Amino acid sequence: MNVINRIQFPHTLETTNLYINCHNGASLSSNKDDVKVTFKKGGFLSFNTYFNSFYEKFYAKYTELEFLYYLLKLEGDFQISLYRERHGQTHRELIYQETVENCQLEKQTKICLPDSWRSENMGRVYLELMCLSEHGSFVEGCLATEQNPLREVSLGIITCTFKKEAYVKKTVENILKDGSLKSKNLKVFVVDNAKTLNKEEFPNQSFELISNRNVGGSGGFTRGLVQALEEDVYTHFLFMDDDIELEPESIYRLFPLYEYAKQDFALAGSMLDLHKKNLLHEAGGLYSKTPDNNNYKYDPFEVACINPWLNLENPQEINHLLSDTSPDYAGFWFCAFSKETVQKMGLPIPFFIKLDDIEFGLRMKERLGHSIVYLPGIAVWHEPFYAKNPVWDTYYWVRNHLITHSMRQSLKYTDAVKFLTKRLLHKLFIFDYNSAEMIIRGFEDYMQGPLLMENDPETLHAKIIGLSKTYKSQSVKSSSSLGEQTFNDTGREMMQLPTFRRLFALATLNGHLLPNFLLSNDAALFIISAEHIDWWPKVFTKKRVLFFRDSNISVYQHEMSRTAGIGILMRWLLLIIQSSINWSSVSTEWKNHFSRLTSLDFWKEYLKLNESHRI
Question: What pTM was computed for the model?
């Protein structure tokens, strides 16, 4: 017997509905060593949930699995029903039902999955149990097969961290204490860019701590990958971010997927919102696209998430994930790929942070023709992007987008200028002069060409952080100070400004060119959350703006500075005029150096691995 999926119980009360639904006398009973569902007569347990559904469509498409069956540890009499749901349908189909009596925990109950799961009418399958006896219990279950694997799989798990000790320790603990994962051939490599972790805290032969220079996420992941490749025992690798909460079953499910795979593919875990754990943030994305009503429009500096903000407690919304839209990349919060993939296309690119996963995924699709699969039920909870946005992040966002496009010769100079000018103006309009400075510096450094990557990344990052604090008109406050402020919170209706007023706002740089007597001392409150981002006209005629990010205890205050705003705009205009001459040659230089930047020789120099056998 080979287990494909394990039925999971919730780890916390707030995530219960992502795993099980209990009704009419069924209840979850949990203590440290014993987790089960207990029943009274008529009690009802449903696995019509995100984590405990079997997404047959994906297994039929990407694996050679054929005959599957459930094994359940039950006590009592039960009616067991098996249902299927499909994308775009509002009803469910009963595909199997059986009554079982006098079930004992010592003898598992077997329920075979009908052969129809491999037909064209595939979707999502789940079990429901109704207790027919006075009392009953469900202890555990799994989906299994008698087929032998097509290949052996060994997994090198690599996570890169910088001062996220609590997250990393919990992630490693969850992996190493999982009884079923102990039988798998795996090893965890933690690359510590801050050198704040202690190896003695992880006394396990399946774990290795690597102290590293602060070379960012891309450098940390590649440092671990280089070492794992040197061991020459792993068929596959898994990148995982440090600021996640892990469902260990996500790792367990990787093994059968690759053991029975029809072809090579990258397997991506979905990103769930760490603060709103029922919400899906991203299950794949499309590069250079932005949502436009029910379609997408071109934007070289954006990524359009596929099926964003689904409520995964709602079965109908889970069914949207069955559309199997082909994404362009796999986020490094949970990204698995084969050793063969690395051998054919090279290592990640040294972006420090930002877009390294996107570029890696684009390369997989374009050079190797590999599928990137976001299989529902494989996921992590991750710090949401709306809750954090360091100013220096903008530098890497601009620079790395430009480099990514240059590798593919996919961005015209006029488009780059058009889209970046819009973003720079937006930053000026909300008095975010430090982010505007980052846009300029990101563009300037891109125009230096690939020799920029020969510089020491730690030194460069320190300079960027310093530059991100250039303008002192920006400050951080505690959210408790909100109550002391006077706000003119006109909300989204500001988008309905008459055309002439919007044009007037644009012509005056959203108030920068207005005389003082036309400006208000009130502060505009700018709100950023998962579902909502305010619009820049809200700031028009104000001298100050306060930014409130959902799930962030800090409030950021920006004050208008005419000198800063006008000065930045003049510098930008001069820069784009000067850069127009060299744009084509610089883009070609980046493209020509691509192979070197993703080579093992380059990375050994970049990481200074040649200076010592081990860092």
Answer: 0.92
